[in-house]
Design brief:
The complex is a heterodimer of chains A (304) and B (243). Chain A starts with a strand and ends with a helix. Chain A has helices at residues 45-52, 74-79, 96-106, 115-122, 138-150, 168-182, 218-223, 237-246, 271-278, 294-303; strands spanning 5-16, 19-30, 34-38, 60-65, 68-69, 81-84, 156-160, 187-192, 203-208, 211-216, 229-233, 250-256, 259-264, 286-290. Helix content of chain A is 31%, strand content 29%. Chain A is of the alpha/beta class. In chain A, helix 3 (96-106) packs parallel to helix 5 (138-150) and helix 4 (115-122) runs antiparallel to helix 5. With 243 residues, chain B is of the alpha/beta class. In chain B, 36% of the residues lie in helices and 27% in strands. Chain B has 9 helices and 10 strands. The radius of gyration of chain B is 18 Å and the shape is globular. Chain B starts with 6 loop residues before the first strand and ends with a helix. Classes of the chains: A alpha/beta (304), B alpha/beta (243). Chain A binds chain B through residues 39-43, 137-139, 164-172, 193-195, 208-209, 237-238, 241, 254-258, 295, 298-299, 302-303, and chain B through 40-45, 141-143, 165, 168-174, 176, 179-180, 183, 187, 197-204, 222, 233-235, 238-239, 242-243.
Chain lengths: 304, 243
């Protein structure tokens, strides 16, 4: 079946008793896309993914994967989908190779048949193939989980926060693996709370509190940031934050590592005037105008 | 305000073994009073193990550890009285209200009823959450829970507060509000010992310690680490150390 959209979601809602976790979301994902669902805890990411992987019923609305409805066509979806849930869900008391063989068998295939697909990832843990899965480090568990999700050569891969709680190096390596997978033609949906990872996706949906605020290519989102933005730093960041907040013409002040990102109420900034006001408490200030990143945009959308 | 520079935590040759597995391999470091001390490293590097020893929750296998002037082997209870703790996984009781949680924790730390009542009102006013006093914790969004949990962790004015990945999964605005609360606490004299996977948060720390496989790989101010590793930001420092 040759369909344009691998995933289609229309007016999807999900409630748990009194809590409305997903408040009517719409999006679609095309073949071979790397699509990111970006948002904090409680935004609705896991609920949406559980519905798409046919593990949870929607409260209302429709969703389809590979042209099959998630409720009526779930069997067809499950055979062609790879899923990596947020929490490590493999068998801790089976070895690496036993887990992989189990998943291959369940999907009616063998490890050898699709070895080429997972080789990139699996070869990194292959030396430990007889180690029990429960004794693997976090990074290795991730690689095993990803291998098991791919062993049956699925058309779609859904990864729920694969990099949450993982260190910066492992996160980077994981995304490098994902991009190589995408080049093999697999459609990939990933959720993450890390805004910087959004830039690695083809398109992203920024989600907060059960609603999608914006869907687009990361570049388009950052280009659409409504106003001018500056970064500023001094030797005393804490003092700088409170001093800036006292200044009438300053609007938002947000820490971004070493620098603060600031906007003004008028949209423009007289940098000389600002430096003059701050100089008494901050002898050395660095001030530059900058382009917005995804996190700046996310916060702007939150404030709307 | 000039920060005090005495050492509030002293660790010398700390070793922690689980059977033959060495989780903490000869750690030596100090944390200065009112410092914001960042503890970074991959999962499994030994951060949580060290944190548990420092907060009096487990014994070292060997080595010297002093927290707030007290020895962790013989004065564990005194250590516990002088610290606060908060983690991503557990912070407050979901089925109690905001007020009930504060009263509970205040009681555990031996604070008087009067003090608890006064400070509760102050705390809620500062967080602009006065109307949430009688709301169940499980009805609040994660970010709000974490802010309240942090305030509760320092309610009894401890010398040190241990924060284990306190901002994991929290939205970007709340994450920053949270760090402003950390700055305030440090400024008022409380030492903050925090673990995080957000590299931009590493920049907010006075000093950062990077752990790998049970050992300390690097310990310095973010500025000096960036210089040492010729890196633009802490993300690059971390990546360069690992490779």
């Amino acid at each position: 079946m040759d369909i344009e959209n691998i995933v289609e979601v229309k007016d999807l809602k999900k409630s748990y008793e009194k809590v409305e976790a997903v408040k009517g979301v719409n999006f679609s994902v095309s073949k071979g896309e790397l699509f990111g669902l970006i948002g904090p805890d409680g935004a609705g990411k896991t609920s949406i993914f559980r519905i798409l992987t046919t593990l949870l019923f929607p409260t209302s609305g429709k969703a389809s994967v590979l042209g099959f409805d998630v409720v009526n066509g779930y069997k067809n979806i499950r055979n062609n989908l790879g899923y990596m849930p947020q929490r490590f869900s493999l068998y801790q008391d089976l070895s690496v190779i036993e887990n992989l063989e189990f998943f291959a068998r369940v999907f009616g295939t063998t490890v050898q048949e699709n070895y080429v697909l997972i080789k990139d990832i699996y070869s990194q843990i292959e030396p430990f193939k007889n180690r029990l899965a429960g004794q693997l480090s976090g990074g290795m568990k991730q690689k095993l989980a990803l291998s098991c999700a791919l062993i049956h050569s699925p058309d779609v891969l859904i990864l729920d926060e694969p990099t949450t709680g993982v260190d910066a190096v492992s996160r980077k390596e994981f995304w490098e693996m994902l991009i190589r997978l995408k080049e093999k033609g697999i459609t990939i949906l990933v959720s993450t709370p890390y805004m910087d990872e959004a830039n690695l996706c083809d398109r992203v949906a920024l989600i907060q509190d059960g609603r999608i605020m914006r869907i687009d290519k990361p570049k388009n989102i950052t280009n659409d940031f409504g106003r001018k933005l500056w970064e500023i730093k001094s030797e005393n960041i804490y003092r700088l934050i409170s001093d800036l907040r006292q200044i009438q013409f300053i609007d938002t002040v947000y820490p971004f590592g070493e620098f603060l990102h600031i906007t003004t109420k008028s949209g423009n900034l007289d940098s000389e005037q600002l430096m003059l006001v701050l100089k008494p408490n901050h002898p050395s200030i660095v001030l530059n105008q900058i382009d917005a990143n995804i996190e700046d945009c996310f916060m702007e959308l939150m404030n709307k | 305000m000039i920060k005090n520079t005495g050492n509030i935590i002293e660790v010398k040759n700390l070793v922690k073994k689980f059977g033959s597995f060495v989780a903490n391999d000869n750690l030596t470091f100090e944390v200065k009073e009112s410092e914001i001390f960042g503890f970074l490293g991959a999962n499994g590097a030994g951060k949580t193990t060290a944190l548990k020893i420092l907060s009096g929750l487990s014994f070292p296998t060997s080595g010297e550890v002093k927290v707030a002037g007290f020895d962790v082997y013989h004065d564990r209870d005194k250590v516990k009285k002088n610290i606060g703790y908060m983690s991503q996984k557990f912070s407050l009781y979901e089925d109690l209200t905001v007020k009930e949680n504060i009263r509970f924790y205040g009681g555990i730390y031996g604070l008087s009823g009067k003090y608890i009542k006064e400070k509760t009102d102050e705390l809620l006013k500062r967080l602009k959450m006065e109307d949430l006093k009688d709301k169940l914790i499980n009805s609040l969004p994660l970010g709000w829970k974490q802010k309240i949990a942090f305030s509760v962790a320092i309610f009894h004015n401890p010398k040190i507060v241990f924060l284990d990945e306190p901002t994991g999964g929290v939205d970007p605005i709340t994450r920053r509000d949270f760090w402003e609360m950390i700055y305030e606490a440090s400024n008022s004299g409380i030492t903050v010992f925090v673990t995080t996977h957000y590299m931009d948060e590493a920049e907010y720390c006075d000093r950062v310690c990077i752990m790998e496989q049970g050992r300390i790989d690097a310990l310095n101010t973010p500025a000096l680490l960036k210089k040492q590793f010729n890196a633009k930001n802490m993300d690059e420092v971390f990546i360069k150390i690992a490779r």
